[in-house]
């Protein structure tokens, strides 16, 4: 996953220790592997900031002013517990192959500009995290919370990719405050007698929004909640 991914407009983007896509289901007997990332298989160099930045869209890059406005809203490795690191691998912000119910949230679909960063947990805590921050045209951010919550909940049921499938259950979480609007949910994926979890947090303040996605083989939300609080505080 890339050090940081920054893009403009809400078009689709195209990224842990295995090939990453926001939601890839491994075959039963291998376990359910939810590999999360952000956006941007088709990426190009964008404006220079304190961290390497690439675009998540096929044509439009952020202006220096847009990048300067969004970059401070992103978490850094210093915000995480010891052992976490920025993912600088190629294709690290990719929603390629991910179902729309996850990809739309990861790219904060409908936003005017956005920036994404991805992190890897330590070997002792095999979790991954993605954060996307975005700006909206006036009046649209509040509406996005309702739309994206509904989209994420639509994942519930059976998720299939090729010959692989998993049962998906989405339940609400009571985590950090979500500002003017937002939600938090945990997605549980079950296949082959094993489970994996994808926690999602979305908060809106004014015309800004932040999304934090968290993949873990554990259902514990303690660290996720701590990071969600930090992400919200940056808005």
Secondary structure topology:
Layout: E1 5-8, H1 64-70, E2 85-86, H2 100-106, E3 113-120, E4 128-135, H3 141-153, E5 157-161, E6 164-172, E7 181-191, E8 194-205, E9 208-216, H4 222-233
Antiparallel strand pairs: 1-3, 2-3, 3-4, 4-9, 5-6, 6-7, 7-8, 8-9
Helix pairs in contact: 2-3
List its traits.
Protein Transport Mog1p, Chain A; nine-stranded antiparallel β-sheet; 235 residues; alpha+beta; single chain
Word description of this protein:
With 235 residues, the protein is α+β, with helices and mostly antiparallel strands. It has one domain: PknH-like extracellular domain (Protein Transport Mog1p, Chain A, 3-Layer(aba) Sandwich), CATH 3.40.1000. It is built from four helices and nine strands. It has helices spanning 64-70, 100-106, 141-153, 222-233, and strands at 5-8, 85-86, 113-120, 128-135, 157-161, 164-172, 181-191, 194-205, 208-216. Strands 1, 2, 3, 4, 5, 6, 7, 8 and 9 form a nine-stranded antiparallel β-sheet that branches. Strand 3 (113-120) and strand 4 (128-135) form a beta hairpin. The two termini are 23 Å apart. The model is unreliable at 1-60 (pLDDT under 50).
Calculate the mean pLDDT score and round it.
74
CATH homologous superfamily?
A: PknH-like extracellular domain
- The number of distinct structural domains comes to 1
Terminus-to-terminus distance: 23 Å
Q: Based on the structure given, which CATH architecture is correct?
A: 3-Layer(aba) Sandwich
So what's the CATH class?
Answer: Alpha Beta
Low-confidence stretches: 1-60
Number of strand elements: 9
CATH third-level topology: Protein Transport Mog1p, Chain A
Radius of gyration: 16 Å
Major sheet characteristics: 9 strands, antiparallel
Order of helices and strands: EHEHEEHEEEEEH
Strand percentage, roughly? Answer: 25-35%
Number of helical regions: 4
Instruction: Indicate the percent of residues in helices.
Output: 10-25%
| Structural class category | alpha+beta
Global shape: globular
